TrEMBL record, chain A:
InterPro entries in alphabetical order: CidB/LrgB (IPR007300)
Gene Ontology terms: cellular component: plasma membrane
Membrane topology, as annotated: Multi-pass membrane protein
Transmembrane spans: 6-25, 32-54, 60-80, 92-115, 135-163, 208-228
Annotated compartments: Cell membrane
Record key words, sorted: Cell membrane, Hydrolase, Membrane, Transmembrane, Transmembrane helix
Full protein name: Putative murein hydrolase export regulator
Pfam families in UniProt: LrgB
Organism expressing this protein natively: Planococcus donghaensis MPA1U2
Molecular function as annotated in GO: hydrolase activity
UniProtKB/TrEMBL annotation, chain B:
Cellular localisation: Cell membrane
Keywords annotated in UniProt: Cell membrane, Membrane, Transmembrane, Transmembrane helix
NCBIfam families the record matches: PRK01658.1
Protein species of origin: Planococcus donghaensis MPA1U2
Membrane topology: Multi-pass membrane protein
Protein name according to UniProt: Holin-like protein
Transmembrane spans: 30-47, 59-78, 90-109
This protein's GO CC annotations: plasma membrane
Entries under Pfam families matching the protein: LrgA (PF03788)
């Protein structure tokens, strides 16, 4: 009973922290106040200060995390609504996503190999450009560490969100398709959030890229691991 | 009444998710169950077996809080303090560099292909 109460407490704490940081973010709109980043920082500090282990926190935290599965299924709805955009630009969209997913996975594996990291860490870095639920599942299927994979997904997301626009303009990637596919393929939901600032077309392209690269990444992940390791 | 529809839609989404998990388990498919559920739902919508209106409000609700579901996983960073205080800190610039390469190649290839398509049209 005490255990369940504790779990309910941690689940509530997670939800409450998210809603509070979301209110602050919506008011000030500063990148560093991003609700995921801010909530993670607050919860991490609270847990470390209170000397609570991650396993104890996850008795309730996992209740919130379980919702990721259905959320991925729900991504079929925005993709279905953008199907016209997808089907009229099918070849550019698909070729860009295939290139990005392949280069992202291969470079992640090669760089980590170069610095002689363990195989478990290499497999954890591999799915970093995929949306969190898929990246975690790919990492766990391959023998990586799901929770650490989620951390790398956040690093990739923030890289795209904060530094992506400079990289894109430096490379003269200035079309809606190029920007959207670049951001969505490499930086998933956070890239898509940045794409919304360019416009509707970029945003649609980016969410298509995020969804399709998740599907493609789930298929290519085992192949990339098998080829490169 | 609106809330009842939203709730029913959410149950349908969870149903597709569970179906994906079951199929994954049964046929040993090397894809996460959630992605299988996603593909099933997308196919059902494309083939007009299932209609957008029968699921849209639930999907909006589920996706409105998408960032929330990531938080328990990212809090897991507290387990890796040791990793990131040592050599593991190198993994951060590695991930950033690899993200740059992925973005550059995805963006460049799609833009190039779209411009070629425009010219040939």
């Amino acid at each position: 009973m005490e255990f369940n109460l504790l779990a309910a407490f941690f689940a509530t704490l997670t939800v409450a922290t998210y809603f509070l940081t979301n209110i602050v973010y919506l008011r000030y709109r500063k990148t560093l106040l991003n609700p995921v980043l801010a909530s993670t920082a607050i919860l991490a500090i609270v847990l470390v200060m209170a000397n609570v282990s991650y396993d104890t926190y996850m008795t309730g935290g996992s209740w919130v995390g379980t919702l990721l599965g259905p959320a991925v299924v729900a991504l079929a709805i925005p993709l279905y609504k953008q199907r016209d955009l997808l089907f009229t630009n099918l070849i550019p969209v698909i070729s860009g996503i295939v290139a990005g997913v392949t280069v992202g996975m291969a470079s992640g594996v090669l760089f980590t190999q170069l610095f002689r990291f363990s195989e478990q860490l290499i497999l954890t870095v591999l799915p970093k450009s995929l949306t969190t639920p898929v990246a975690m599942q790919v990492a766990s299927n391959l023998g990586g560490i799901p929770s650490l994979a989620a951390v790398f997904v956040m690093v990739a997301g923030f890289t795209g969100y904060i530094l992506g626009p400079s990289l894109l303009s430096w490379l003269h990637i200035d079309s809606a398709i190029g920007r959207g596919i670049g951001l969505g393929t490499s930086a998933h939901g956070m890239g898509t959030a940045k794409a919304f600032e360019y416009g509707q077309q970029e945003a649609s392209m980016s969410s298509v890229a995020m969804t399709l690269s998740a599907v493609l990444g789930a298929l290519l992940g085992p192949i990339a691991a098998w080829l490169l390791l | 009444m609106k809330y009842i529809y939203t709730l029913l839609h959410i149950l349908v989404i969870v149903g597709f998710y569970l179906m994906g998990e079951q199929l994954q388990d049964f046929f040993n498919i090397p894809l996460p169950g959630s992605i299988i559920g996603f593909l099933l739902l997308f196919t059902a919508l494309m083939l007009k077996i299932y209609r957008l209106e029968w699921i849209e409000s639930g999907a909006h609700f589920v996706l409105a809080f998408l960032p929330l579901y990531f938080i328990p996983a990212t809090v897991g960073v507290i387990e890796y303090g040791k990793l990131f205080s040592g050599k593991g800190i190198l993994l951060i610039p590695i991930v950033m560099a690899s993200t740059f390469l992925a973005m550059a190649s995805a963006g460049w290839v799609s833009q190039y292909a779209a411009k070629r398509k425009e010219r040939s049209d």
